[in-house]
């Protein structure tokens, strides 16, 4: 039925993989490897490119099955012209990463339509190896690396097949040869990885928008609540000392001080602005930590609060220039487009900000006119209350938090949409919200009370247990809290969310959405299995990130120090690499000599046999195998030469047969010499 269906739509019948002609089988295998290599690019390619590539690969597969002639050159040129035009239409250029990868994929597919000779196959395979590399421009994760390792194995297998032009070697044999070659080349690859000088990031492109972040330079009510659905990792942090409690893990991001009634935004930074040294008081000993930050679209670093701009505390990142704003937010000159790893120091106990009123504080009590009138009336009523007459900022903040605890507020992922006067609805009516609702309302009320206040966003808390000593902070840990200004102290951090959901702050437990079907089924059978599976995967990913993706020049120098090199430098790296390559070359030469010695005994045996047969007046050619020489012996010597002919056939079976037993050269020579001596005696 399947064969009839294929014929009905014009496709050749499938004869079975083992019954395919050699050319068709090898071509289909190459097409499968190319399709597998292109597959990770589908999410980044324009739809037309994916469709065109699939169409050309399917077309080439049909031509191989039908043994039909390949298209002429003009048809290929026409498709290339169409592809160039579509690339210009979608990318507006033929240069750059996106356009370059698009054209490479198209050229790869087009080249398969010219597979007429082994030279064409070599070009396709070389393009395939280059296409493997381009996948890492988008994703450098462990799954992609494993998928590309499989692609490399397939391409090497196709390369081995191209060097086996005679007969029909099985794919299994070619794959084994390719795997053996890859294993033999692995030590050299590891050596180059460990010692080749790190000039700069290979895959990161500064202007790319790769990656994502739970933070931004603005905040609307409901924006951070959506991040609770994102369980991806934002950063990993390892403490070079005792880990602080969850409630101390505040990673400071954008500070939002401008409010237009609907949205909070950052205040433009004045050129050259920096936190004055006399406004920053660090208390106690610093906490040294190492952070691995995932790529983001923002030019900022969410560092542990408070990481000051001191030479012994600030992060040092090659290729970026981290600076600290006056509001203590860390920013960079370029967006973070690649994974970063760095060390820094933080003082969890600190005071910052002016101790006495300054003109800049007037901006931190501003509210947009015409918004949230009922909340402003509520604040005015609180201020008129005799119990709060003359109260300072701390006392007023305590009263606002008491209202949150006592008025029936609920911490929820689904507060619903709020209207124009969102703070009025939240504060006085519905009382349903996420962290940004509580922080926004708190700051609006404090400003209405005449107290300078602002919203701070970032991350709070981490997973309950570390993975390989790294505490994982997820996008779902994105958080918003508040700061108010207290005379004599400066800015004071306060988290209104803790008044209604203390477990969120004390244990870092974010609200969790309902699990999906598969996760729910696994959780119902074994509640701990899903957590253990995720922990194992993240531990594997963290090892990949730390030891492969983040392998840096500092680690190279540390490796040389462990090998006994004092104060290693670039020259020491080069010397070590040259020494290792020379040692590898000598080892390869020694192996080649040993392999020649291992294989040459057959050649020596052939030469000795030829000399001995010449003494018996049996003419043989140097290239003739033992079975042909046995035929010459029978023709020349007749029955007297039968033992000698049998010995030669036994050698042939041992050398070329699938079940022959290989013996030492001298063993075969003793049999042949004994038979030849018997002929001589006759």
Summarize the structure.
The protein is of the alpha+beta class and 682 residues long.
Strand-helix topology:
Blueprint: H1 2-8, H2 22-38, H3 47-66, H4 73-91, H5 97-111, H6 118-134, H7 142-162, H8 171-195, E1 218-220, E2 233-239, E3 250-259, E4 263-266, E5 280-283, E6 287-293, E7 300-301, E8 303-304, E9 323-324, E10 330-331, E11 340-346, E12 349-352, H9 373-384, H10 393-406, E13 410-411, H11 422-430, E14 432-433, H12 435-448, E15 453-460, E16 471-474, E17 478-486, E18 490-494, H13 497-500, H14 502-506, H15 517-525, H16 527-549, H17 553-562, H18 570-615, H19 626-637, H20 642-656, H21 665-681
Parallel strand pairs: 13-14
Antiparallel strand pairs: 1-4, 2-6, 2-16, 3-4, 3-8, 3-15, 5-12, 6-11, 7-10, 9-10, 15-17, 17-18
Question: How far apart are the first and last residues' alpha carbons, in Å?
Answer: 70 Å
What is the radius of gyration? 37 Å
Strand content: 5-15%
User: Helix fraction?
Assistant: 40-55%
- Detail the poorly predicted runs: 200-211, 658-662
E-strand count: 18
Largest sheet: 7 strands, antiparallel
Shape: elongated
Alpha plus pi helix count: 21
Mean pLDDT across the residues is: 80
Helix/strand-derived category reads alpha+beta
